[in-house]
Amino acid sequence: MSAFKAQAILLLSGPGNHEELEKAKAIVQSALSPFSLAIDEIQSINIAGRLILAILISCDDAHLPAIEKDVREHCASLHLDVATELL
Question: Is this prediction's pTM over 0.85?
Answer without folding.
Answer: yes
